[in-house]
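Priority: medium. Attachment 1 of 2:
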């Protein structure tokens, strides 16, 4: 960059700058836009200019791109840096966002290995003024962790996000504890480190914009955060927290319950596994990898779950009655003979009757 005003202290300097200016102006490339040709003609006529840079159009464009990237980059704080917190942090860092982390355990080396910063003291983290605070703790510790944060050290319009497997509970906790000047976005990435280890493509991501300020910058910040999951290929599903919990009780909780029941059976792989059996083994692996606190949280903090447990019990009883009801007494005699009838009679009398009602509608 040549500054004309900086070369006018002496006549010799002014003469040198004039020759250099004349030389550089006529060296401008012919393919520059019209306004730059006009700029060149004005210079060649002896008009004074403050600066000339033949690469200015390209530098300006680069600055625009960089400014756009800077405006979409977020400073994201993750509170709770366990398996799922690290799982999310890798995606945030991969997309160019600045990530701060905090956890009860010291995960400094783990955070630094993926390009994030670790703060053992939440006060120090909040003084970094993150744009987004992602609460990534267990369901049962959410309220305690939220109350322990030094909210007064944050910007007054900070966006709070939860990623819990239940939604009404964190929504109500956020609304009770967070002052009204904080934004609230409730989300549920319906996948984890195991199911999303290869790709997030077409995996559902549920979100509810519970409380977002009307300013353009706050609306844009929410969209920038959601774009992280869009760019990873997630299937974005916007629904209320109440609706989410109704669906999750019949899908996620039943899935986890079935997996934990099968885990109690201690299923093992065999030389003659069928595809269906392999699916059951995969289900056990996926669900047993999660902590029991997660499963307990699904049970404790979703009011729709108890109904599903009752329906599960009724379904199992109905299935047993249907199964044993087909053991007609004549067929039993043919199979076991009269000699064993006395042994079987006490057992058969304990079996459920066949006149059981069908399951009630959900």
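Attachment 2 of 2:
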């Amino acid at each position: 960059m040549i500054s004309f005003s900086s070369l006018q202290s002496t006549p010799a300097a002014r003469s040198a700058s004039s020759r250099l200016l004349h030389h550089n102006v006529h060296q401008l490339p012919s393919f520059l836009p019209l306004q730059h040709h006009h700029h060149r003609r004005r210079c060649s006529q002896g008009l004074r200019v403050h600066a000339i840079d033949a690469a200015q159009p390209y530098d300006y464009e680069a600055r625009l791109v960089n400014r756009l990237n800077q405006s979409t980059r977020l400073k994201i704080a993750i509170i709770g840096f366990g398996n799922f917190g690290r799982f999310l942090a890798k995606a945030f860092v991969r997309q160019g966002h600045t990530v701060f982390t905090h956890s009860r355990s010291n995960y400094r080396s783990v955070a630094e290995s993926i390009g994030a910063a670790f703060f053992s003291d939440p006060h120090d983290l909040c003084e970094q003024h993150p744009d987004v605070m992602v609460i990534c703790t267990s369901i049962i510790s959410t309220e305690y962790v939220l109350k322990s944060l030094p909210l007064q050290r944050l910007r007054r319009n900070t966006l709070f996000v939860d990623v819990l497997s239940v939604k009404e509970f964190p929504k109500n906790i956020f609304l009770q504890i967070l002052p009204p000047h904080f934004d609230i976005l409730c989300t549920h990435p319906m996948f984890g480190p195991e199911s999303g280890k290869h790709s997030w493509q077409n995996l559902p991501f549920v979100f509810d914009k519970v409380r977002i300020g009307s300013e353009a910058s706050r609306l844009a910040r929410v969209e920038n955060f959601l774009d992280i999951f869009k760019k990873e290929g997630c299937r974005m599903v916007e629904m209320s927290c109440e609706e989410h919990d109704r669906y999750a009780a019949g899908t996620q909780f039943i899935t986890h319950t079935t997996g934990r029941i099968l885990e109690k059976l201690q299923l093992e792989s065999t030389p003659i596994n069928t595809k269906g059996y392999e699916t059951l083994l995969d289900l056990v692996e996926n669900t047993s990898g999660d902590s029991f606190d997660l499963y307990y949280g699904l049970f404790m903090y979703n009011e729709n779950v108890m109904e599903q447990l009752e329906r599960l019990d009724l379904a199992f009883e109905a299935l047993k009655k249907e199964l044993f009801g087909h053991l007609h007494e004549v067929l039993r005699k043919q199979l076991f003979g009269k000699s064993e009838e006395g042994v079987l009679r006490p057992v058969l009398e304990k079996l459920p009757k066949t006149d059981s009602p069908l399951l009630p509608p959900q």
